[in-house]
Design goal:
Blueprint (H helix, E strand, L loop, with lengths): L6 E6 L3 H15 L3 E6 L2 H6 L7 E5 L7 H10 L7 E5 L3 H8 L6 E4 L3 H15 L2
Parallel strand pairs: 1-2, 1-3, 3-4, 4-5
């Protein structure tokens, strides 16, 4: 059970498998220091957007709302975009083309091992703040 001071992390991905993977990684790595909320429906996730989010892991391509739309809703909801990481199966170069001007913290190619290592360093940095 997360502690009262647990970091609030939202995972928004249309894949239930990917949501479960992120939850497992976060909970195993940070235990009760993290409270993970997963959303496969981006419209439902938008309702949960608030300034108290420590990290938003956001898939770029989803069927009903894409990551850019959710990112805009997060910004409108007061989420600090420096706490948003965009994830995708697309190559990192493509992600940078699409999101470099967005103000988000990082873009991560889900399947690239070097990207995963960078992602873990970013996570550790955020979770220790």
């Amino acid at each position: 059970m997360p502690s009262a001071s647990a970091r609030r992390v939202l995972v928004v991905d249309d894949s239930r498998v990917q949501c479960a993977k992120w939850r497992k990684v976060l909970e195993e790595r940070y235990g009760d220091k993290v409270k993970v909320e997963t959303y496969t429906d981006p419209a439902e996730a938008v309702l949960a957007m608030a300034p108290n989010i420590h990290l938003l892991l956001l898939d770029w391509e989803m069927p009903e709302m894409d990551g850019k739309e959710v990112l805009a809703a997060a910004r409108d909801g007061g989420v600090n975009l420096k706490r948003v990481i965009i994830t995708s199966g697309h190559p990192a170069d493509r992600l940078h083309e699409e999101f470099d001007e967005s103000g988000c913290l990082a873009v991560i190619e889900k399947a690239e091992p070097e990207q995963q290592a960078a992602f873990m360093m970013i996570l550790d940095s955020i979770m220790r703040r």
